[in-house]
Specification:
Blueprint (H helix, E strand, L loop, with lengths): L3 E3 L2 E13 L15 E14 L2 E12 L7 E8 L2
Antiparallel strand pairs: 1-2, 2-3, 3-4, 4-5
Length: 81
C-alpha cells in the first residue's frame, strides 16, 4: 500500500510483529532460558524517490522474557541496480 504516489515518489507504511523462541523445546536434562523468548514489533516508513532507491526508517519495540530487550531505531538505504 502506498500512501503517496505522485510522479516518481512513493511512501510506504509497514508494520510487522514477530514471536521468536529458539529454545521452545530443549533436550532432556536442559532448561530453556528466557533470554531467547522474544516479541518484536516493527513500524517502518519507506521513502522511494525513484523505483530503484529506497530509504527505510523504522522503530522496533523489543520484549524479551528475561527483561533484557532494548528498543531500536534503524535507518537503511537500498539500491536495486
Amino acid at each position: 500500500m502506498t500512501l503517496k504516489r505522485k510522479g516518481r515518489w512513493g511512501i510506504v507504511p509497514f508494520v510487522h510483529y514477530e514471536e521468536l523462541d529458539t529454545q521452545k523445546e530443549v533436550p532432556a536434562g536442559y532448561e530453556a532460558s528466557g533470554t531467547y523468548d522474544q516479541n518484536l514489533l516493527t513500524a517502518r516508513i519507506e521513502l522511494k524517490p525513484i523505483p530503484q532507491i529506497v530509504f527505510k526508517l523504522d522503530y522496533q519495540w523489543v520484549r524479551i522474557e528475561a527483561r533484557t530487550g532494548v528498543n531500536r531505531f534503524n535507518i537503511a538505504m537500498g539500491y536495486l541496480f
